[in-house]
Structure formats: C-alpha cells, structure tokens
Design brief:
By secondary structure, the chain is an alpha/beta fold. The protein is built from twelve helices and eight strands.
Length: 272
Amino acid sequence: MSRFDDYASKYSQIRLERRNGILQMTLHTDGAPVRWGPIIQAELVDAFTQIGADRGNRIIILTGTGNEFSGPRAEPGRSFYREVSHHITADLLDVIHWNAHRLMTRMLDIEVPMIAIVNGPAMRHSELPLMCDIVIASDDASFEDTAHFKLASQTPGDGIGIVYTMLLGLNRARYFMLTGQVIGAQAAKDLGLVAELMPRDELLPRAWELAEQLAQKNDLLLRYTRITLIQPLKKWIEQEVMYHLALESLAKLDKEDVMPDAKEIEQGSAGE
C-alpha cells in the first residue's frame, strides 16, 4: 500500500493535490504545458503505480496546464528514440518498452473512477485522457498523434492505435493515424471521444463537481464499477501493446539516422 504523503511531492512534472479522497494530477513542465519526453513518461508510470496502490484515493482528476493538455508536436523525422539516444540498442528498447507498456497498464490498474480535463490540444499521447472514465474538454481542445506515422515516421505503437481503434472504429482510426488528422473539439464530442465541452475556465470546477457527485458512492461500488467499465480496454491493451511496440521498434531499425554506422560496428561499439 502507498500513502499520499510518501509521493505527494515526489514528481518534477506532476503536481498532486488531494481533498476528501479526490486526487488531482496536473501535468506540467516547469509550470508550463507539459512537453512529452522520457521524464514525464517515467514519472507517470511511477505515479500511476503509487496512486493505484493508495486506497485513500477515491476519484482521480487528470489535467494539463495552461492552454495545452500535452505537447509538443514532433519535429518531422524525429522520434522518441532520437530524443533518448544516438542509436537503438537492445538495452534502450528494453527501457522504452518497459515504460511504454506500463504507462498504459499502470493507469488501467487504478481501480477508482478517473476524470480527464482536456484543457487544450492533446498532441502527444492523446490516448491518455481518453482512457479515463469521463472526458471533458475545452472548446478549443483537439486530439492528434504527432509522435508516430505522419511526423515521426514510426508505427503507431504505445497503445495509441489500440485506444483510437476501440473508440473510433477501425476505418476512422486508420484514417486518423495514417493522415495525421487533427480531431477538433466539436468533432471529438460528435464522435463520442468527449462527453462535455465548455470554456477552459469552467473545466476544473465542473470536474470537481462530477468528482464530488461520484464520491457520494461507497468505496467498493466506485472500485468495482471502474474495474467493470475498464475491463474491455484493459484486456485489449494487455494482449496487443507489446506486439505494437515491437513492430514500432523494428520499423525504426530501417532508419539510417538511428543505426550505428559501419565504423562503430567494426570497433565493436554497436549495441553498447
């Protein structure tokens, strides 16, 4: 079991505050909208683990900072692999896969209702808020996948393909991922990704209102309802995400800019 005091101030890019069992997670980078990278990914894995093991948490609110939920857009041709290493090695892949896998599964291991506030464009890992039980968004919110096929030239792994296929249906999801489509706020609501739209300054009060309504129920009802509702997605993620990550990695091996050159191989440095 975890205790809130043990992890409340642990993270550099996640601000945590709890009142009456309602825990608010605010993602940020130096107080500004979060910029996705190895730090926030690793911190979320650990935070989801601690939060899920703390039975003092009864409802979770997940939100971003300022006028973006998550960013930035990836630079064309630049991938997460290039952000963490000069070239791909087995050890690098193991670390990336470990975190990417658990980013999904540890979030789904949280056994209490989760409310997402999409306070603006969700450009990186836009599937994360959509994995919450209730999703509310600002009038200017949008959803896209900037870190895979269209811009970063890598297959849509990380679970994003699984989540969008489940929520949009096969054909819409394929179009979304292959074309780099940006789904605007109203379209997201029409497609069922988002439950409510409102001005940004109304989002946080509304999320707390919803959380306080849910908190009127007893603990086991909250927990078992969350487990029931999330089970189809959890099952699909467990079955498919490592396969998707493996294909993502294999596709990147075909990119010259992330492979060791011949000189490195001759010197025996490749893979170190």
